[in-house]
Amino acid sequence: MTARSTRRTTAAHSRLAAAGAIAVAGALLLTGCGDQTKDKDTSSGGSSSAGSAPLAGKLPAEIRDKGVIKVGSDIAYAPVEFKDKSGKVAGLDPDVAAALGKQLGVTFQFENGTFDALLTGIRSSRYDIAMSAMTDNKSRQQGVDPTTGKKVGEGVDFVDYLQAGVSIYTRKGDTGGISSWSDLCGKKIALERGTVSQDLAKAEAKKCPAGKKLTIEAFDDDQQAQTRLRSGGVDAASSDFPVAAYAVKTSGGGNDFQIVGQQVEAAPYGIAVGKSNTQLRDALQAAVNAIIKNGEYQKILEKWGAQDGAVKESAINGGK
Question: 0.70 exceeded by the pTM?
């Protein structure tokens, strides 16, 4: 699953060359982002009373007393997080959050936001955490722009819970000779702003020779990028593999898109938490490890076809 691919910012920017990463591709036929200026979605990840929750005591008192963890998420990144036909928040991340809520005795309240503003939302206390198919990488941990190395804000810590890579896809039957990132010079690519996909595209653009510019069109969410590709406005699009695979499988009944080449930048997805909020971070890690141990984690991944991205144990800041 996106290195959302900041999905998706990463060493890219998050959003798989290794065999294990390619395995993700095999089973992740499924996986996003939204508009922070729009709605606040009060759908929750589920909870149990603090009295019956085995890990409630690990939470900071103020969160335990409120009974709510506010989650910043770009809720337009199916199948990781999206709104179903009834308007309810659904997907892999909300299901994982619901399982964590049972362990911690709180409700995870998802609030819709543009992906590239989620970390800012944590810094301003708009959200307690961000859970949005976000790639754990050093640039986000340190709060620096991956392309310039300049400080852009306070870094965050990550509680890792899944592995995913980044993919390129084109219109079905119209690859334009694109099979890797190095084939994009002279082409146009659509992607979500603030993701690893954007970081990779920027890095590739610097390598293109004169006269063969790579044009990058960055959008607020992945659905807009898909629409741009579908209409023929660009030659390719990029997102985390789970999201790309899901788009290939579902858009136009499977007739709109095709993935080209292999996944790259295999990396963990992480729940982002403010650097100073170590107690919440550690409580989340304990909850992730608890659902891994009790089998609920595996059931959720299998539900969304993401089982090959499973981790055996949650790490803190495991991204490179």
Answer: yes
